Amino acid sequence: MTVTASTSEPRPPLQRWLLVWALALAAVLVVFLLQDSVPWAVDYPASAVVPFADWVSALMGWIKSNLSWLTRSITAVLGVPLDFALNLLAKNFKIGHGADAYVLPRLSWVGVCAVAFIAGHAVGGRKLSLLVGGCFLYIALFGQWTSAMLTLALISIAVPFCIVTGLFAGIWAWRKPWAERLIVSPALDLMQTIPTFAYLIPMLLLFGNSPVSAMIATAIFATPPMVRATMLGLTRVPLEIGEFSDMAGCTARQKLWRVLLPSARPTLMVGVNQVIMLALNMVIIASMIGAGGLGYDVLLALRALKVGEAMEAGLAIVALAIALDRLSQAIAHKQAKGHVHRAVNPSFWRRYPNLTLAIGILVVTTLLGLFVPAFAAVPKAITFTTAPLWKAAVNWVTINFFDAIEAFRVALILNVLNPVRAFCEGFPWLGAVFLLGLAGYQLSGLRLAALVAALTVFCAVTGLWEKTMATVYLCGISAFIACLIGIPIGLMAARSDRFEKIVTPIIDTLQVLPSFCFIIPVVMLFRVGDVTAMIATIAFAVVPAIRYTNHGIRQVPPALIEAAKVSGCTPRQTFFRVQLPLALPEIMLGVNQTILMALAMIIICAMVGTRDLGQEVFIALSKADSGRGIVAGLAIAFIGIVADRLFNAWTAKARARLG
């Protein structure tokens, strides 16, 4: 006998949500079709725009007028160590004034290169020594030494400030969970999603066009990884270690500084590595407000369309980035292995032989520079330039492949970019708020729905909806293509150790490249515009998709794979029915990071002619319009936060479903 289901039986959750989404999409479609009747629901009315930008500009003007004594004091205090570092590495010390001034030379380039070799050997052996020392020698021989040392001087002051500030902020957040939840985490999210250009505008207004402004912007931008690493490191310290220190009679201060922080040192060193790389990236961008250095060289060359000079400065940035990254990673790895037992109270040179040797070489070579000019500055006779070769190569490609490149660019614009852009810019703002709020409610409840809707509304009420959707279109299509490329590569790397060994050095190199370096080669071939921005963004954002996919597949417990094999699954079935579903949350986390990196790069691409929120920030920077720049920066940050919260909620739900 057949029993029919009762009509009062509740619908399954999936079926219910499918019906809800079908109705929601139908409602948005109706609004779009009836836009002549309800135009305010499609295009946010200009008469209802809230003048946040004017309010922010007024606030910044008041701060500049009434607190100038404070900004001048900060500039004076921070200028002392910064000037010392600049004079030590890139300039000369001048004692006295006028004709009677006595000049002490900067550190010899020979000594700095030798110290780079010694540092690499001390923490990573001969291979790392050759890599790090070779990078510094490359910078010297290709005539980029002074600019590179200006950049390094700024980093050498900004990074310790970031480490100390991040350490204390992380300790406070770890000790006070309410502070971490209500203050620190939201602040870190905002700091990490606000575009780099937006940091420059208030710094330029308050501290002027100077290296101090660049250093402060760099310090603010690069601090969040240290805060997160400190919180994570202290949380991961085993409870037994803390209990043992309590039993040993340690005070709370002794427990923190002598037990917990040393135990968390490996994680802290990972945070230091991330701080160094973010500081380098930001210092390059901060060249626009007086930082000078390699970033300024790239900027001038791009503005003058000097392909060879831009490429040479960009490669010097790459060399410096690789040297600092590999050196800090090796130090972190060495710290993770622990300390070697040393004799009690040995002499300084016995305890630190490499440091003693490095100081001795720097002193001797710098003093020699007083008498031998070749030690003081890199002789032009031994320097090389590849600028003519780069220019000739670009000209050759342009002459021989112009038709193919132009056909590809035009086809991409007409068939992909323009239709997607038209769809995004024509999407009703009220429908976007409603659909994103619905997604937040489905994934995590009313609180996430309210947050997502409020942040989306901000982009509309500030009059930036069209620019916001232009940003979403370019970021979305770039992230989508990056995932289409990155996820299959990650899957292949997870299934083949040999392929992983080939891919890993490539993505490691891509990860350390500052964002400027992705723009240079693309703009040479495709000129300015959305195509250039998209290709550069894909190259910059593809790394997380590869890395997280590979990691997710490899982290599937071996016991589950063995169980699948015992059950008679073929390797293909094991991969698609066991490994891939279990790795899906990790893969989606990679997609989330890809979107955030794409968003960060899209803003940098405002330099090559995109018409979105990045252009708003760029224009505001050129006009020193703090209100316009900060509000556009907040809109960009809110796009990132919305994407991050929705993907994190989806990932958490998937993890919970998979147990």
TrEMBL record:
<dbReference type="InterPro" id="IPR000515">
    <property type="entry name" value="MetI-like"/>
</dbReference>
<feature type="transmembrane region" description="Helical">
    <location>
        <begin position="420"/>
        <end position="441"/>
    </location>
</feature>
<protein>
    <submittedName>
        <fullName>ABC transporter permease</fullName>
    </submittedName>
</protein>
<dbReference type="Pfam" id="PF00528">
    <property type="entry name" value="BPD_transp_1"/>
</dbReference>
<feature type="transmembrane region" description="Helical">
    <location>
        <begin position="355"/>
        <end position="377"/>
    </location>
</feature>
<feature type="transmembrane region" description="Helical">
    <location>
        <begin position="471"/>
        <end position="494"/>
    </location>
</feature>
<feature type="transmembrane region" description="Helical">
    <location>
        <begin position="194"/>
        <end position="222"/>
    </location>
</feature>
<feature type="transmembrane region" description="Helical">
    <location>
        <begin position="587"/>
        <end position="609"/>
    </location>
</feature>
<feature type="transmembrane region" description="Helical">
    <location>
        <begin position="69"/>
        <end position="90"/>
    </location>
</feature>
<dbReference type="GO" id="GO:0015871">
    <property type="term" value="P:choline transport"/>
</dbReference>
<keyword id="KW-0812">Transmembrane</keyword>
<dbReference type="GO" id="GO:0031460">
    <property type="term" value="P:glycine betaine transport"/>
</dbReference>
<feature type="domain" description="ABC transmembrane type-1">
    <location>
        <begin position="148"/>
        <end position="328"/>
    </location>
</feature>
<dbReference type="GO" id="GO:0043190">
    <property type="term" value="C:ATP-binding cassette (ABC) transporter complex"/>
</dbReference>
<feature type="transmembrane region" description="Helical">
    <location>
        <begin position="506"/>
        <end position="525"/>
    </location>
</feature>
<feature type="transmembrane region" description="Helical">
    <location>
        <begin position="128"/>
        <end position="145"/>
    </location>
</feature>
<keyword id="KW-0813">Transport</keyword>
<feature type="transmembrane region" description="Helical">
    <location>
        <begin position="275"/>
        <end position="296"/>
    </location>
</feature>
<feature type="transmembrane region" description="Helical">
    <location>
        <begin position="389"/>
        <end position="414"/>
    </location>
</feature>
<feature type="transmembrane region" description="Helical">
    <location>
        <begin position="448"/>
        <end position="465"/>
    </location>
</feature>
<feature type="transmembrane region" description="Helical">
    <location>
        <begin position="629"/>
        <end position="647"/>
    </location>
</feature>
<dbReference type="GO" id="GO:0015226">
    <property type="term" value="F:carnitine transmembrane transporter activity"/>
</dbReference>
<keyword id="KW-1003">Cell membrane</keyword>
<keyword id="KW-1133">Transmembrane helix</keyword>
<comment type="similarity">
    <text>Belongs to the binding-protein-dependent transport system permease family.</text>
</comment>
<feature type="transmembrane region" description="Helical">
    <location>
        <begin position="102"/>
        <end position="122"/>
    </location>
</feature>
<feature type="transmembrane region" description="Helical">
    <location>
        <begin position="17"/>
        <end position="34"/>
    </location>
</feature>
<feature type="domain" description="ABC transmembrane type-1">
    <location>
        <begin position="468"/>
        <end position="647"/>
    </location>
</feature>
<feature type="transmembrane region" description="Helical">
    <location>
        <begin position="152"/>
        <end position="174"/>
    </location>
</feature>
<dbReference type="GO" id="GO:0005275">
    <property type="term" value="F:amine transmembrane transporter activity"/>
</dbReference>
<keyword id="KW-0472">Membrane</keyword>
<dbReference type="InterPro" id="IPR035906">
    <property type="entry name" value="MetI-like_sf"/>
</dbReference>
